[in-house]
Amino acid sequence: MPGMIDTHIHAPQYMFIGTGMERPLLEWLACTTFPTEDIFLDVEIARNIYNAVVRRTLRNGTTTACYFATIHTDASILLADIASQYGQRAFIGKVCMDRNDTYEKYSETTEESIRETERYYKSIAYSIYKRVKPVITPRFAISCSEKLLKELGKFADEQDLHIQSHISESPAEIKEVLKLFPDYKNYTEVYNRNKLLTNKTVMAHGCYLTNKELHVFRERGTAISHCPNSNISLCSGHLDVRNALNHKVKVGLGTDIAGGYSISLLDTIRKAIETSKILYMTENSYHVLTYKEAFRLATLGGSEALSIDHITGNFEVGKEFDALLINPDAKDSPFELLSPISTEEVLQRFLYLGDDRNIKAVYVAGRCVVPFISNN
Ligand code: GUN
Ligand code: FE
Predict the structure, then answer these.
(1) Is the Cβ–Cβ distance between 242 and 257 less than 8 Å?
(2) ipTM of model
(3) Could you give the CA distance from residue 212 to residue 188 in angstroms, rounded to a whole number?
(4) In 135, 145, 216, 254, which residue has its Cα 20 to 30 A from 224's Cα atom?
């Protein structure tokens, strides 16, 4: 099957995956996330964690990942280097934040953030990496001044760069954004007026976007990364993915490690279907997401969201070969083929029950990247 695409994952947060999810978003950021990301100033810590996260995502069938790193330029460049060495297709952003009232230590000045973003961009853009691209990454509106948003939007526009951020994830977050940006009519406007919504932008969550805001997303060609595990784990909310699709907004899936606790897009597929079933149980006219639709979101949808659907996402002639070799009857795997079933049923069972034991090999652009070659 085509390789899976994680449109939103925080590489440094792999350090505390599966822990610390008792708090809602803003407290979780202040108490767990910022203190952990802060230590990535140490590139040896970064090397250890980034090696693990690239290996583990690849092992689980993520052929393309769109990563947030930290505010540290050198560690972010290191992540690019590691992804490139392992052969993963990756979009990687040095995180920008010039405002952090909840954990002041972990922030930059506006000038630093812009200067370091340029240094980071140059280092990746002029590198030998073929399938690793830089992404302009204002963390979210709360952690950026208007000046920083404007400068980053301008820089992305001049260099025609990919952009990623978070939007409308939780009610408390939205309230804070509207307080910090009183001259803007809604959250979408904060990014849109600063040139950050383009057809190369992917925004994580979007649980509370109104139809008017979705309309702007559609007009700008901006994508949503649907992160259902994180949305539930941090009690943020639910994205009505059917409504986003009906508005013809591009949608991909994201693990949002470590707001989400699973590195595997198979888990994200399951949580996306379950989220849509929860919405159905409160509103019966709702059309539940089918497993085929969720599969599409994890593959072609992700490539559309990252504007690489001309290169990857399915097996159309002319695209690069990003693929998983599935063994539906692997020894000690979570399911076995006790009776003959159709290919569609094999796929369905893999999506619902499978794990990395059923993934025999992973290819990116025709190169076999799992099993890992020795000494990696
Ligand atoms: N909003 C701003 N930063 C983050 C983050 O690291 N994770 C999540 N889930 N939301 C955010
Ligand atoms: Fe996130």
Answers:
(1) no
(2) 0.99
(3) 9
(4) 145
